[in-house]
Amino acid sequence: MDANDQPAEVRRGEALALKPLEAYLRERLPEMEGPLTVRQFPSGFSNLTYLLRAGDCEFILRRPPFGTKAKSAHDMEREYRILEALHPVFPYCPRPRLFAEEPAVMDGPFYVMAPIRGIILRKHLPPGLVLDPAQMRSLCENLLDVHGELHAVDYQAAGLAEFGRPEGYVGRQVEGWTARYEKARTPDAPTFAAVVGWLRERMPPDHPRPAIVHNDFKFDNVVLDPADPLRIIGVLDWEMATIGDPLMDLGCSMAYWVQADDPPDLQAIRMLPTHLPGALTRREMVQRYARRSGIVIDDFDFYLCFGLFRLAVIAQQIYYRSFHGQTADERFKSLIFAVHILEKSAQALTRESA
């Protein structure tokens, strides 16, 4: 069985300039031997990820997507600095190797890190991997516990105090994502007006225990040990990490968590195998997090509703690029359906919330 996440041919329009890149890297990564080859990891909708090989050496290169980008997104240098600070104290974090902003090499900033090779779960389990209900439950628990480990890191001691402002974090998130949605909204997109109004009315105060928040913590951003698929050995995609409210981070994760008894429209946009027999429900995940972290969670509806809205904004921002012809990636065209489904789900949650 080979369930490891595999790179593929580079997508049309996303090729790298191989000769200047190879020359630049050879001066800075002396272990490189043999000709450089490049392949691309096909999943993901935001920053682009490539596998570089030179002889027996492998590296991962991350760069922003081609085309128009959100003003504050895709900050390669910031993402690299987070890895630099976090890798020594959170061993699931990849080891960064170099950051570069060289127009002669690439049309935007990029960084290189050491690979963490293993299994990454997508919508379905990879061929050959079978998890019985007890194993699936254990894997969900392990995912949640690693998330809790991240929130328990002393971000000030790690040198990350300047990477976020926990004061007023919730309000900035609500207003910031609302502004992003309005900027990316297309004529075929819903308004989200009722959901945004509800979020503004229900905003909780600043959390007393701010933490490093990953902001995209989910199964397809963690790496599983090929020898023991229940063991998490890596956490990827730190582009949205900051200092903020850990419950907001958990809410964003739970927005991806489509469970077995969810309605058909949510099942249609499921991205992860969170529906399998034995998988914890969203309620069980939140309850376990509260027990393990010691954080009292009286009302999680706000955090989940925000997570659904934020996920819709991300989908809409990506769809915007397709709508305006800024990308040739065919996957983006269907994201408008996900935006409508997420609005429906968020509205239902606001009606059902006490």
Helix content range: 25-40%
- Largest β sheet strand count, sense and barrel closure: 5 strands, antiparallel
Trace the largest sheet across and list its strands.
1-2-3-5-4
Which CATH class of the largest domain is shown?
Alpha Beta
Q: Return Rg in Å.
A: 20 Å
- Globular, elongated, flat, extended or rod-shaped: what is the shape? globular
Q: Secondary-structure element sequence? A: HEEEHEEHHHEEEEHHHHH
Percent strand equals 5-15%
**Full CATH superfamily name of the largest domain:** Aminoglycoside phosphotransferase (APH), C-terminal lobe
The parts where pLDDT drops under 50 for at least 5 residues are: none
Q: How many β-strands, per DSSP?
A: 9
CATH topology of the largest domain: Aminoglycoside 3'-phosphotransferase, Chain: A, domain 2
Counted up, domains total: 2
Overall description:
This protein has 354 residues and is of the alpha+beta class. The protein has two domains: 18-113, Phosphorylase Kinase, domain 1; 133-352, Aminoglycoside phosphotransferase (APH), C-terminal lobe (Aminoglycoside 3'-phosphotransferase, Chain: A, domain 2, Alpha-Beta Complex), CATH 3.90.1200. The chain is built from ten helices and nine strands. Strands 1-2-3-5-4 form a five-stranded antiparallel β-sheet, with helices on both faces. Strands 6-9 form a two-stranded antiparallel sheet. A two-stranded antiparallel ribbon has the order 7-8. Helix 3 crosses helix 8, helix 6 (246-255) packs across helix 9 (301-323) and helix 9 runs antiparallel to helix 10. The longest helix has 23 residues, at 301-323. The N and C termini lie far apart (48 Å).
